[in-house]
Amino acid sequence: MRVLNDFSWKVAGEAGHGILNAGLMFARTCMRAGLHVFANAEYPSLIRGGHNHLDVHVNDRKIYAHTKNLCLLVALNMDAVTKHKNKIVEGGGIIYDGNELKLDPKDFSGIKLYPAPLLDIANQYGGRIMRNTVAMGATMALVDLDLELFNDVIRDNFGTKKGEKVANDNIAVAKAGYDYIKNNFPDDFRFRLEKVENNKDRIFISGNDAISAGAIKAGCKFFAAYPMTPASSILHTMAANERAFNIVVKHTEDEIAAINMAVGASFAGARSMVATSGGGFSLMVEGFGLAAQTETPIVVVEAQRPGPATGMATHSGQGDLRFVLHASTDEFPRIVIAPGDMDQCYYKTIEAFNLAEKYQLPVVVLTDKYLGESYISTETFENDGIVIDRGKVLTEEELEKLDEYKRYKITEDGISPRSIPGQKGGEFVASSYEHDEHGFEREEEEIRIAMHDKRFRKMEEAAKEIQNPPIIGNGYSDITIISWGSTKGPILDAMPMLEEDGIFANFLQIVYMSPFPAEQVEEVLSLARRSIIIENNKMSQLGGLIKEHTGMDIQHKLLKYDGRPFSPEQIYEAIKKVVVDSTTVIESIEKSVRR
After folding, report:
1. What angle do the packed helices 518-527 and 541-550 form, to 10 degrees?
2. How far is it, in rounded angstroms, from Cα 575 to Cα 570?
3. How many CB atoms are located within 10 Å of the residue 235 CB?
4. How far does Cα 152 stand from its chain's mean position?
């Protein structure tokens, strides 16, 4: 039986041979066919060498994540075959170079083999680097998708950057791969892709690019960073757009310089942001505390990867939640936002800038490698209704009316009137020391208590404003899922799979870690028949946070900390087991009672 528009594809081989770019080109081709696409890559922390692969999941319905099942593997070396052949589904296939790899069909039961002279064809047009494009053409032939869609992507990808000749050579080599498959293999591949009508504008975007776009839309005028995977592409995107949007972008010598520059820029009145991973944020924490003490707004993007120390630099995890909640010395208010998809990356970054300036404190956007570097097709961001809120920034006219300006004035909501350096009448002292309302260094008990309490009143006000997203799912459920960040996509894809088995799930995504939505979480858990928390860390850091704020334990935990994200299938299997096993226990109890 043929399977239409439900397809997963992987290109794999040695790093440094254009695999990631080729895979994203295939993903864009599928999107231009009106299909929904999700793409994510895995690569080693090496410039060249090591194993590299990119997965593309395609469907005619909305999808949110990758899948562990593989329909077609493009294997550019034997390592790719060895590592991934066990993921290929019944009736799936492998495209490979039959001159370089000798595969015995007896070792691949249920898998179709498509040997093609990838290198020989590539050498006719430009050399080994073009093997990917040959394989791309071969893929288009197997799934029977219009090759011209891929040609358009080639023109867009190479035409403006490398010239018409390079684009035409790639078009020709793709056609050669396409023709080889059509001429040498029967039309019996199980999977088909077919163009569908789409009347909505879609974009193909990564989480990091969505964060960058949100920062630009929010009016970010200063960005500083030292490159650190998986946050590096934010620096690349901001630098590529600095002239178009009048942004100062600084590639600093280290993370300490980055945050100190950004604190200075924010102090001077510019909306400022830094981006790093956990190791870089470790160096930033003193500057992070400086922003808190001087009540200077700043946005920090912390893109998680497994640690400690260098850890697994090019992999994903959710181990930094507790770290960012308690980073730097002593206690001070900070807002921590954990988006779970590309739309939230965009809109919550805009919100982060508004909250930072409104409450005059640091805001962390907490993401990870899987969310930041994966790409998805999504509808164009809607900008109607977006408001830029700069908070209590005084005009010179307002300053003139004041008998005395107090930058750190004690107010009912904890937010003091803010001036920008250079404004007449708005002069004040700012330092890392505890201080009085004017900013002068003070250490008396009553002043310390008054200023500390003032700063924390901001969080009481923020908690009234910030609303966590509503629960996703039906009113009735067999199980309630609680999670955060990039686990959202696999959970959303697992829920329909569960429903097909008659298991109904609700999903509560925690977006705001600080201030924490304790009342909502307590209400949801108190109504849940069963509950499970899903996290990419060992100690269930969100589970601990829930216990801290509500006193409630979650019955079941699904924790993964191998540096790889959850697949929908893993979540489906785990939840199914929880529901079935607990149902069996309930039934046995009822039987014993009846006896």
Report:
1. 100
2. 9
3. 25
4. 28
In this predicted structure, what is the pLDDT of residue 592?
46
Whether residue 249 contacts residue 238, with contact meaning beta carbons closer than 8 Å, is answered with: yes
Distance from C-alpha of 470 to C-alpha of 221, rounded to nearest angstrom: 33
Give yes or no for residue 594 having a pLDDT over 70: no
Instruction: Give the per-residue pLDDT at 126.
Output: 81
263 to each of 208, 270, 274, 363, how far by Cα in Å? 22, 10, 10, 12
Give the residue carrying structure tokens 């684009």. Answer: 167
Rounded Cα–Cα distance for residues 555 and 589 (Å): 18
Residue 116: other Cβ atoms inside 10 A: 24
Contacts of 132 (CB under 8 A, 6+ apart): 11, 17, 18, 19, 21, 22, 74, 76
Residue whose pair of structure tokens reads 């493009």 in the numeric block: 74
What burial class does residue 381 get, using C-beta atoms within 10 Å of its C-beta: 0-12 exposed, 13-18 middle, 19+ buried?
middle
Q: Is the peptide bond before 308 cis (omega within 30 degrees of 0)?
A: yes
Contacts for 17 with CB less than 8 Å, ≥ 6 apart: 52, 76, 128, 129, 131, 132
pLDDT interval class at 584 (50, 70, 90): low
Predicted TM-score (pTM) of this structure: 0.95
Q: Cβ–Cβ contacts within 10 Å for residue 397, how many?
A: 8
pLDDT digits over 24-43, tens only? 999 999 999 999 999 999 98
Q: Which carries the bigger pLDDT value, residue 362 or residue 47?
A: 362
Q: Is 528 within 8 Å of 480 (Cβ atoms)?
A: yes
β-strand pairing of 505-509 with 479-483: parallel
List, for residues 513-541, the tens digit of each pLDDT value. 999 999 999 999 999 999 999 999 999 99
Q: Are 281 and 255 in contact (CB under 8 A)?
A: yes
Backbone angles phi, psi at 29, to 5 degrees: -60, -45
**Cα dihedral 536, 538, 541, 542 sign:** positive
Per-residue pLDDT tens digits for 377-416: 999 999 999 999 999 999 999 999 999 999 999 999 999 9
Q: Supply 145's token pair.
A: 């998708």
Using CA atoms, how far residue 553 sits from 476, 530, 549, in Å, is 21, 11, 11
Q: Please state, in angstroms and as integers, the Cα–Cα distance from residue 471 to each residue in 306, 348, 511, 569, following that order.
A: 29, 18, 12, 22
Q: How far is residue 551 from each of residues 170, 326, 455, 543, 554, measured CA to CA in Å?
A: 60, 20, 26, 10, 10
CB of 340 within 8 A of CB of 489?
yes
CA gyration radius, the chain: 27
User: Tokens 């040609």 map to which residue?
Assistant: 151
Average confidence score pLDDT of the chain? 94
Q: How far is CA 554 from the centre of its chain?
A: 25
